[in-house]
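U., I forgot to send this yesterday:
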Amino acid sequence: MLLDRLRIENGQTLTQLCEGLQMSRQAVTKHLNLLQEANLVVVIWQGRDKMHYLNPVPIHQIADRWISRFDHSPLNMLSQLKDQLEQNPTTNHENIAEISIEPQSLNNEQEANKNSQRKNDTNTQKKR
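Result:
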């Protein structure tokens, strides 16, 4: 929740971050300290104000390492479908279907894409 708030409005004081939360100031401080230790939040002092900023670099590195190995288009389509289904809940339970992608099928699709790319590269090299 704190990371989302900093993503929306970066550079907030503890007081600003505490506004509207159902947490004590001490609990927010503990969470911010943990986020600082994880290098997800950076603190910069501006005069007497301690400003908290989101550090997107570790999040980007995690996304690159864990998510980018999957083809984004099927994941984006599933995410969009999930959002649409959640926004328009149906009362007719006959129309509800569970959608899942087996990790093996993603790996097979990625391997097929790699093989196709290799063939294209080989054909291009032969034509030269």
